[in-house]
Write a structure and sequence with these properties.
Helix content: 10-25%
Structural class: alpha+beta
Shape: globular
Strand order of the largest sheet: 1-2-4-3
Distance between the termini: 36 Å
Largest sheet: 4 strands, antiparallel
Radius of gyration: 14 Å
Order of helices and strands: EEHHHEE
Number of strands: 4
Strand content: 25-35%
Length: about 90
Amino acid sequence: KYTKQGEINIFVENETLIIKDTGIGIQKSDLSRVFERGFSGFNGRLDQRASGLGLYLSREIDKKLGHELSLSSKLGEGTTVCIGLKQKTLVQD
C-alpha cells in the first residue's frame, strides 16, 4: 500500500528471503519502533489505514518459527525486509 509507483522484488539469497520495494521508505526516527505493537509511524498517520500490527505480527510469527526478521529503509528510496530462513530446532513451550 506504500508503493504506488515502482516495484516490489521478492527473492531468496543465502538462506534469506528478501522483500525489497521502491516505495516511500520509512523515516529514520521511526525505524527503531516499526516492530512495536500499534506503532504506525509517520507514514501510517499520513495514510490513515495503518493499524500498526503488520510488522509486529510478522516479527512475532518469525520468532515462533525460529527465524530472524530485520528491516532497513531509506526515506524516498524504499524498504528492504530480510527474513532468515536457516532451519533451527524449535522448542515447545
